[in-house]
Design brief:
- The complex is a heterodimer.
- Chain A has helices at 5-13, 37-45, 79-95, 110-117, 148-157, 182-193, 208-211, 215-223, 239-245, 254-264, 315-328, 348-351, 354-364, 380-388, 391-398, 447-456, 462-468; strands at 14-17, 22-26, 29-32, 56-59, 98-100, 125-128, 142-145, 159-163, 166-173, 201-206, 232-234, 277-282, 289-291, 299-301, 343-347, 372-376, 401-402, 423-426, 441-444.
- Chain A is an alpha/beta fold.
- The chains are: A alpha/beta, B alpha/beta.
- Bound molecules: iron/sulfur cluster.
Chain lengths: 469, 204
């Protein structure tokens, strides 16, 4: 029988099934961060320990400061934040889990270091107490976020009771125009299907426009699968993925590599495999995108105008848009390129990878920032790599801060907030009210588009900037 | 886990769709430790409930005297979309809410509610709207949820049947703990892991 990639991974991890469709699933790798303290706390309260320490990895990312890192944990915003970072270290020690703390070379955002260290591999089940765990699916894994109770269950057993999700294939055909990136593709998808468009489904992204993306671009697409409501996002692994993984710390080596590779090559969905749903987009028609509202589905091509809520599809969307425009202080009919921008943030598990930093630097080179902006690379290793390539100089010369690695302004848990009322161009994944700080107004976009906003102080089509130099 | 069988409680209508977990509990409160003494109830819907000076916003439904003791919420579609934060469920529970009725839920949040002995009830959009209309017309009215019978009885004594996966139902009714349910299968788990890792020794 023809199977989807998801079905193949699912079947290879089912330990047992109950009547009614509940399956007990083996979890290959579970990742934890500071926010996992509730799960560790509950575990300790029940007198349990992590059952498979070698299949669990901990990293400090959400609460780490991005400035003053030479002072280590003392640079953290407040006692609560320091407590969270320490608690992770302590819980890891007690349970014998590898821990990449604030001053470790391998520190970075959990969804950036997973692929970077080779922890993320095709065919694996990967969990983390964080919704953007969908990111890891870009390498052909089934990766999904859990809440604290399920996380506790995984820590205690390395298994999870799960109901099998449905499958949705999103095919993006054609070839993307220059300066149209993975971020633009995924924003266009969410704008089309909505934030609940994939609820209950695992998304497989396919089609020539997806295949042509680099591994970094694919990670960006899968990162935001959750913003479309998807349980997970995944992309068939190919030679790009194998080249990306080869030689990474936790990737198999020597004869094991060959054995792994043979297994990975069997993963892509078979011809004729059936998906519960399919959606198709023409990639050649896509433009750089940005969000104007407070939901990731409230996104438009940069050439667009703020819509009139009255013109929108259903009552829920209309009500949401009204509220969003009030919060964002925007008026229907306004050209997106007339929106003034006060702040910019380049980073996060969506767009904090080397390709993202290079794209932003290409726009900033020889230009000057007119607003406050900073870059926080997705990992400490990536920061070094960017510095070796001279990207830090480009940012600094343009007047953009070059910070240490962490989640930073994406959710602003470490204090890297956008002040109330300020309008931020951000390469992260969520534009919810208050996400980047209370009262902050977030416009999501790609790194190149954020860089264009940095040098103009307004929403700018990066293509016009490049054409006009 | 506390079993869930039936619940009759004051129900509060929340009109908005797509209430994301950031609205249920703003991220800045997630660093707070939660204990039996200090629950997450003060943070529930914080920025919808309180103004910048920490004063209650009188318009918000839970600030109106009749709904203060709500144990049930009737919300719009896609309730709890967004992050995986279980803090959203802790805030609801610590406030005293044991059930949310909505046309649809964010997947992870739905699972989180079940994991904590809360009942997410999915009813069609029109019925949810009807319930909210009734609750607005009769502030402080109660709804009755019967999990064994799978019904929600409204303020006019009409029972609306809902569906729930039998496995989830069983767990809620018995208050079963997932870890216990896993560990009773330890021999099967160990056999699986042995075979699985024999094929993939680099993952052990
Ligand atoms: S960068 Fe943002 S989305 Fe990613 S893990 Fe950190 S807080 Fe979550």
């Amino acid at each position: 029988m023809a199977l989807t990639m998801f079905e193949k991974i699912w079947h290879s991890h089912v330990i047992l099934e109950k009547p009614g469709g509940d399956a007990l699933l083996h979890i290959d790798r579970n990742l934890v961060h500071e926010g996992s303290f509730h799960a560790f706390g509950a575990l300790a309260k029940e007198g349990r320990k992590v059952r498979k320490p070698t299949q669990n990895f901990a990293v400090a990312d959400h609460y780490v400061p991005t400035v003053g890192r030479e002072r280590g944990i003392e640079a953290a915003e407040d006692a609560d934040a320091r407590n969270m970072i320490r608690l992770l270290e302590e819980n890891s020690r007690v349970n014998g889990i590898a821990h990449y703390g604030i001053d470790d070379d391998r520190q970075g955002i959990v969804h950036v270091i997973g692929p970077e260290l080779g922890l993320t591999q095709p065919g694996l089940t990967i969990t983390c107490g964080d919704s953007h765990t969908s990111t890891h699916g870009a390498l052909g894994a089934y990766a999904f976020g859990t809440g604290a109770s399920q996380l506790k269950q995984i820590l205690a057993t390395q298994c999870l009771w799960l109901k099998r999700p449905k499958t949705l294939r999103i095919v993006v055909n054609g070839q993307l125009a220059p300066d149209v990136t993975g971020k633009d593709v995924v924003l266009a998808i969410i704008a089309k299907i909505g934030t609940a468009g994939a609820t209950g489904h695992v998304i497989e992204f396919a089609g020539s426009a997806i295949r042509d993306l680099s591994v970094e671009g694919r990670l960006t697409v899968c990162n935001m699968a959750i913003e479309a409501g998807g349980r997970a996002g995944m992309i068939a692994p190919d030679d790009k993925v194998y080249e990306y993984l080869h030689g990474r710390e936790f990737a198999p080596k020597g004869a094991e590599w060959d054995r792994a590779l043979a297994q990975w090559r069997t993963l892509p969905s078979d011809d004729g495999a059936r998906f519960d749903r399919e959606v198709t987009l023409d990639g050649s028609k896509l433009e750089p995108m940005l969000t104007w509202g407070t939901s990731p589905e409230e996104a438009l091509p940069v050439s667009g105008q703020i819509p009139d809520p009255k013109s929108l599809g259903d009552a829920n969307q209309r009500a949401h848009a009204e509220q969003a425009l009030a919060y964002m202080d925007l008026k229907p009919g306004m050209a997106l390129t007339d929106i003034k921008i006060d702040r910019a943030f380049i980073g996060s598990c969506t767009n904090g990878r080397i390709e993202d930093l290079r794209a932003a630097a290409a726009v900033l080179k020889g230009r000057k920032a007119v607003i406050q902006a900073w870059v926080s690379p997705g990992s400490t290793a990536l920061k070094r790599q960017a510095e070796a390539e001279g990207l830090d100089k480009v940012f600094l010369d343009a007047g953009v801060e070059w910070r240490a690695s962490g989640c930073s302004s994406c959710a602003a848990m470490n204090g890297d907030k956008v002040p109330p009322g300020m309008r931020s161009a951000s390469t992260s994944n969520r534009n919810f009210e208050g996400r980047q700080g209370k009262g902050a107004r977030t416009h999501l976009m790609s790194p190149a588009m954020a860089a264009a906003a940095i040098v103009t102080g307004r929403v700018t089509d990066v293509r016009t900037l490049k054409a006009g130099n | 886990m506390t079993p869930f069988t039936t619940l009759t409680a004051v129900a509060a209508p929340i009109e908005m769709a797509n209430i994301d977990t950031d609205r249920v509990i703003p991220v800045r409160f997630l660093r707070k430790l939660r204990s039996d003494k200090a629950g997450y109830d003060p943070y529930l819907f914080h920025d919808m409930r309180f103004d910048n000076d920490g004063r209650e916003k009188p318009d918000f439904v839970l600030n109106q005297p009749a709904y203060r003791k709500a144990g049930i919420l009737v919300a719009g579609a896609n309730f709890g979309c967004g992050s995986s934060r279980e803090g959203a469920v802790y805030a609801l529970l610590d406030y005293g809410i044991r059930a949310v009725i909505a046309p649809s839920f964010g997947d992870i949040h739905y699972a989180n509610e079940l994991q904590n002995g809360m009942l997410p009830v999915t009813l069609p959009e029109e019925i949810c709207r009807g319930l909210r209309d009734q609750l607005r017309a009769k502030p402080g009215a109660t709804l009755a949820i019967d999990l064994p019978k799978q019904t929600v009885t409204d303020t006019e004594c009409t029972a609306h049947p809902f569906t729930i996966d039998p496995v989830y139902k069983e767990r809620l009714l018995k208050g079963l703990d997932d870890i216990g349910l896993v560990l009773e299968n330890t021999p099967a788990i160990e056999t699986f892991e042995h075979d699985y890792h024999a094929q993939r020794p680099w993952l052990a």
